[in-house]
């Protein structure tokens, strides 16, 4: 279980925003870990994160109807997340990743945050993609 908790703690920057309002009686990180241990981790050794069930944020903003990933690492143990990458009305965004990600499988998620930072959407898993 320590590895699972460590995995989520490495995402502190995003979950501190995404789960900030989830439970007023606990920190955003504790709420994230609690939610995901219950919903996104196999509870039989070896413990595994079920990427499709992971949530980094819980909120009320609407998600897009049919988001797409045109090109697409967990193997490298790296995370890339970007706050304020694009305004929603742009309808797209190209994320630059390190060149050594080329050919790697990556897990892709999407979430939204209001301009004032007070509201978020649920995060949405967009699948496993290969970086080209």
Question: Number of DSSP helices?
Answer: 3
- Strands in their spatial order, largest beta sheet: 1-2
Give the number of DSSP strands.
2
State the helicity in percent bands: 10-25%
Give start-end ranges of low-pLDDT stretches: none
Structural class: alpha+beta
What gross morphology would you assign?
A: globular
Describe, in plain words, how this protein is organized in 3D.
The protein has 132 residues and is an alpha+beta fold. The chain has one domain. It is 20% helix and 10% strand. It has three helices and two strands. The chain has helices at residues 2-9, 12-18, 28-39, and strands at residues 105-110, 124-130. A two-stranded antiparallel ribbon has the order 1-2. The chain starts with a helix and ends with a strand. The model has no long low-confidence stretch (mean pLDDT 81).
In brief:
The chain is α+β, with helices and mostly antiparallel strands.
Please outline the helices and strands.
Blueprint: H1 2-9, H2 12-18, H3 28-39, E1 105-110, E2 124-130
Antiparallel strand pairs: 1-2
Features:
single chain, 132 residues, alpha+beta, two-stranded antiparallel ribbon, 3 helices, 2 strands, globular
